[in-house]
Amino acid sequence: MIDRVSAIAEHGGGHLDADTAMGPASFDAARLAAGAVLSAVEQLAAGTESSGPARGDSEAYCLVRPPGHHATPSTSMGFCLFNSVAVAAALLAADGQRVAIVDVDAHHGNGTQDVFWDRDDVLYASIHQYPLYPGTGALGERGAGAGEGCTVNVPLPPGATGNTARAALDEVIVPAVERFAPDWMLISAGYDGHRADPLTGLGYSASDYGDFVRRLMALAPRTVAVLEGGYDLDATRASSYAVAGALLGLDLHPEPASGAGPGMEVVEAAARLSALDGNR
Ligand code: ZN
Question: Distance, CA 104 to ligand 1 centroid (Å)?
Fold first, then answer.
């Protein structure tokens, strides 16, 4: 997979698939993206060993492109060359750390789900629009074998807003992550769920993303947020501002939180499924 991306870059760029264009510098950019997440993990691990967890020493934000969450162990796809979050999670897990990955990009992170599908040391939870590219992420996709219940999907209908996503976090994902008790929280922070985004139909606001991250960073001693999608530049900038603020402990609201929308029945169904895990 690395050789294939490298070869296309050497030839000046091209297409990995119909969606996934590469320029001559894309291979370097993708390696730097994955390396940035590894570097964040290394620095947080070193910092907390020497000085103990403290606000600002236990959070990192990786502003990287290309995104990664569609890249599977064997295939680059959906604008994603290498799965930066999965690479860091795999490294941490190999070191005996428990890792929760929560993906708030509007698309389902099929690649990340694939990597950890049958494992119980990495939890993958996603809130996304459904159906939508890449077509995965149904409610019933919950992992297999030892990993059953360590994959959590909340597939929201088009038009779903921040209140629905907050309910999905509060009623489904936060309880699942609390039961899992991770050492690390990795957030796939894609901003294409913003209502201004041209590629999807979700209705989040920039402030909603800050709320999501505030909820998630409370669940583990260390948090690394990593940029994924987001295709309206103003919305991506404002969402990134809210998330950077949340990671720094600041309550920044570049625009009002979004209110009611469809999809609560999905949240309730996911909560019922998740409660079964809690009772096992
Ligand atoms: Zn996306």
Answer: 9
Backbone φ, ψ for residue 62 (5° rounding): -105, 110
Q: Find the 108 Cα to ligand 1 centroid distance in Å.
A: 7
- How many structural domains is the chain composed of? 1
Which residues does the annotation mark as catalytic?
70
Helix (H, G, I), strand (E, B) or coil at 252: coil
Taking 70 as the threshold, does the pLDDT of residue 221 lie above it?
Answer: yes
How remote is the CA of residue 228 from the centroid of ligand 1, in Å?
Answer: 7
Token representation of residue 248: 């720094």
SS3 state of residue 184: strand
Q: Are strands 222-227 and 184-189 parallel, antiparallel or unpaired?
A: parallel
Span 60-81, pLDDT tens digits: 999 999 999 999 999 999 999 9
Any idea what the CATH number is for the domain that residue 32 is in? 3.40.800.20
Write out the residue range of the structural domain in which residue 219 sits. 2-278
Residue 225 CA to residue 80 CA, distance in Å, equals 17
For residue 216, what are its two tokens? 């998630």
Report residue 233: phi and psi, to 5°. Answer: -65, -40
The alpha carbon of 231 and the centre of ligand 1 are apart by a number of angstroms equal to 9
d(CA 31, CA 84): 8
Distance 129 CA to ligand 1 centre (A): 9
- Burial string for 191-221 (b: 16+ CB within 10 Å, else e) reads bbbbbbbeebebbbbbbbbbbbbbbbbebbe
pLDDT at 50: 47
Rounded CA-CA distance 185/53 in Å is 14
Instruction: List residues, by chain if needed, whose CB lies under 5 Å from ion ligand 1.
Output: 105, 107, 190, 192, 229
Residues 6+ apart with CB under 8 A from 21: 13, 14, 15
